[in-house]
Structure formats: C-alpha cells, structure tokens
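Please check this:
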Amino acid sequence: MFESARLPQNMDKKTFKKLEPQLREALLTAQLPVVEKQPFSTMILVDGLDGAGKGEAVARLYGWMDARHLVCNAYGEMMDEARLRPPLWRYWRDLPPKGETAIVFGSWYQTVLRDWIYKKIDEDAFDKALTRIRRFEEMLANEDVLILKFWFYLPKKEQEERLKHIEKKNVARHVLADWAALKHHKKASEAGEKIILETSKGYAPWFVIPSQDPEYRDAALAQTVADAMKLKLENGEPHSIAAPPVVGGLKRETAVDTIDLTEKLDKGEYEELRDKYQKKLSDLSDMKSLSKTGVVLVFQGNDAAGKGGAIRRVIRPLDPRIYKVHPISAPSDEEKARPYLWRFWRRVPAKGHFAIFDRSWYERVLVERVEGYAGHDDWLRAYNEINEFEQELTDFGYIVCKFWLAISEEEQLRRFKAREDTAYKQHKITDDDWRNRLKWDQYAIAAGDMIDRTSTHYAPWTLVSSEDKRHARIKVLKTICDRLEEKL
C-alpha cells in the first residue's frame, strides 16, 4: 500500500511560496459556501506515524482556512467519562454541525491500532473493530458528513531522524512515546495497510500522504481537502474522491516511475537461467502438494511490453492439462449484463491448476478508468472489490502472482513500428494501441494508483523492467518459482 509513499515527493520552497496563495484561495472558495449554505459538515482525520508532521500540517491548514469555522479535536487515552461509555461515544459527542469542519487527532483508529500493536486484542477483535468503524463512517456519510482520512507516512530511517530533531529542540511532550512507537514501525505500517485496505471506501476514503518533504505534504493535504469539499458541494451525495495526481504542477511520482529500465541480460546468461527456472517450475508443478493450491498469474503492463512472450516462457515447461491462458479483451454483451468480476470468477482454476491472465480485472482501473468506460465512483470502489476478490482466493489457499511489465515510451514506439513492418506481427498492433499512446501520462498515473492500492502482503505486485525482454522473462520465471517453492 505504501510503495509510492516511500518515495520522496519534493517541492522546493520557491514553488511552494508561489503555490501557497492558490491553495488558500482554493480552500476558502470551497469552505465559505459550505459555511453559508450548511449542506454538510466535514471531518478531517489526521493519522499516521509519529514524527511525520501531522501537527505542522494542521497548523498550516488552520492558517489557510477560516479558523472561525474549524475545531481541532484531539483524543488520547480515555478518561473516566469515556471509559464508562462505548468507544465511539466521545466521537459522537464532538461531531461538528453542518457548515463546520472538525480536524481529528487520535481518531477512532488510534485505539484499535495501538491495541493491536501492543497485543491487547487478537486478529478477530481487530477485524470486528474495523467492521464497527465502517458502519459508523457509512452512517455519518449518509447523514451529510464529509469524511476525509489522511495517513501521513514516513520511512523508518526518516522517522528516526525526525524524532532526533524533535528531541533536540525539546518541544514535544510525548517524545518517549514517539520513540516507543518507532520500535513498532514495521508492525504499525502493516496494521496501517490493513486498516486502509479494509476501511477506504468511496464515502470515507483514505489518502496516503508521503511526508518526507513538509511543503509537498502540506500542499497535498490542502489541495485534497479543497477538491473534496468542492466536489461534495457540487454533487450533494457521498462521492468517491481520488488523491490529486498533480500537486502544485508537480506530478506525483509512483512506484512505477522508479522501475530501473536499464536492467539487462546477455544471451548466454539468459539461456542458462531460462533452462534452470523452467526445469524448476516443471518440478514444482509435478509436486503432489500442488493439488492443495491453485495458481493465478496476472500479467499487466504497457502495450508491447512483452506480456505474451513472458507467458510463453512460463507455460513451456507446464503440462498443458493443468493450465489455461485467458486473453482478456473488451467484455462481451453477456459479460456486460453482469458485474465486471463475473467473467473472472468463471475462470478461477480448480486446485492443482494454473489460470494465466493476459490482462485481467485490473482493466477496470486502467483502460476503463482512462477511457471513461467506468465512472469515477465505479473505478475508485473497484480497488477494494479487487482486494477482497484476491483475498478470497488466497484465503482459500491460492497463490496470486501479479506482474507489471514496464517499458519506456521510446521503446514502445520502436516496438510498434517493428510490428507494423513484420507481417506475422501486424495483428498485434491496432488503432487503439496508437490512440492509447497519446494518453501515456494518464495511463502511468492510473498504473501507479493501481500498484499503491492493490499491492498487498497476500497478493503483491512484482514490477518488471521489460525494456530488455530477456531480463523480464527471467524475473517472471524466478518470481513464480519462488512463490511456489514458498507455498509448496
């Protein structure tokens, strides 16, 4: 979930200074009509890791918005008044009226997160708590409360440096607690991922904010709040909201942008590794324990990135009786008449078999998003639906391997032209391929969001540099062998 948030998104002070008046104007333009017309109230939850600058960001937000219609509610350990009541009571008590905005520190997630980290509750209690929270947030949304949830993320090393700086300045009263939290960075991040996956809904979305750079962090927070309030004001109903792909003119860098496209293999090394991993895959597929699991392989990537070639190297050592390749294209009329996941549920393999998808259910958040075939709300809620679908597969014992094959825009052009010039490859190039090239940046943003929102511990994405086809094919084979070996 935090692949892109781990990347430092930098905004220099000059750019920020120029952007600041625009952010202030956008926030006030969104806030003041809400104050006047009172169509809904707003709750901004600020969560995440200690030392990420949550307080600084909120202080800036106060300076940019009309503070007369803002309230900051901070919650720590429950006092006697709250202990004598159900956990959600104090949040109900402090709900803002319509027209007003509440910023929430120490929200209903913090107690659950803390109890999980310190083993005061088990997994079943954790799941039940998240279910209660979902119901709570859904009711608020249906009663005209705009809920915006922000998770401020810091890599562990950066968090440690921040805490050292805070300790030197001696301005924080809770430094000891913050240092204790640092020891649980990994567990807190894992729990945060689960919380975000389970509770990010269209009516109460999570936004993961990379917090290494204070200027970018605060600009992203302000722009998202302004966009969400404006959208809610215009729409009048609970409405799905996406994080802005561009903040202050700077494109948000994603995990897809960081793929090293220079990786290569020479022919001799490639042939040696290909034979090694194909033999290994053949041996693993012959194991009796394969009958206890199914294998789902998903291939997505840029057009002409070599998905078909990688798939051919995977199936070569397999018994044809135990695998099926599913090339996915536009849905048929029969498929359009049913929920979009229906056609993929029909293709789920039996245990002991492989299902290989050349494109997949991820087209909902790629092609259908970019080309407008799926509405804004539809593709946004699809992330959760896809995660739940894949979790259902893995909970049943399946292995799900997902590959994003990446090439540069220049390499794609070269391959397109080669296809046009080669008779037996001409069927691979279509007018749609050329049209899609014109939307390269939009597809890059969609792919980055897809990786961020659907790379889970049970079904992680493997990002593959496919500029060199030999390197890509070996990485795919090795990854599948490693996952099978781990499971079997």
